[in-house]
Amino acid sequence: QVQLVESGGGLVQPGGSLRLSCATSGTIFSIYDMGWYRQVPGKQRELVARITRGGTTNYADSVKGRFTVSRDNAKNTVYLQMNSLQPEDTAVYYCNARNYIASLNYWGQGTQVTVSS
Q1: Residues 3, 40, 103, 72: what is their CA dihedral angle, to the nearest 10 degrees?
Q2: How much is the mean pLDDT over the chain?
Q3: Residue 116 in contact with residue 13, Cβ under 8 Å?
Q4: Is residue 79 within 8 Å of 86, Cβ to Cβ?
Q5: Dihedral over alpha carbons 75, 76, 82, 83 (to 10 degrees)
Q6: Which of 5, 14, 18, 50 has its CA 20 to 30 A from that of 62?
Q7: CB burial class (10 A; 0-12, 13-18, 19+) of residue 13?
Q8: What pLDDT is recorded for position 49?
């Protein structure tokens, strides 16, 4: 059974930092493109950052220069380093694993990030 488990969310003041982790089990981590998405109530889930199997990254314009996505295939884990956090970054953050060729798509349960003074 494939599982994605996020951790690292919490409450942080504006300008602060958090590092999210997503540990994957039950599958071969290295075959997936990994993504971080976020969602606030009443809005669609949006892509925040993605890292391909080959290590290519892309980011939403709103987080460029502040967030960094990385992966450790030996630990089956993807990370999202979030710096200079702002109240508008408040959301539930979800980890996603996708392999388009094999039509595989998995989600984690989400972790809450709240940016507030």
Answers
A1: -50
A2: 96
A3: yes
A4: no
A5: 30
A6: 5
A7: exposed
A8: 98
15 within 8 A of 84, measured Cβ to Cβ: yes
Residue in 92, 73, 61, 84 with CA at minimum distance from that of residue 24:
73
Q: How many CB atoms lie within 10 A of CB 104?
A: 13
Cα–Cα distance, 107 to 20 (Å, whole number): 15
Q: For 27, which DSSP code?
A: S
pLDDT confidence of residue 78:
98
Cα–Cα distance, 111 to 20 (Å, whole number): 8
- Convert the pLDDT of each residue in 46-82 to its tens digit: 999 999 999 999 999 999 999 999 999 999 999 999 9
The pLDDT value given to residue 52 = 97
Place of tokens 């998405």: 37
3-state secondary structure of 62: coil
pLDDT of residue 57: 98
Amino acid in position 103: S
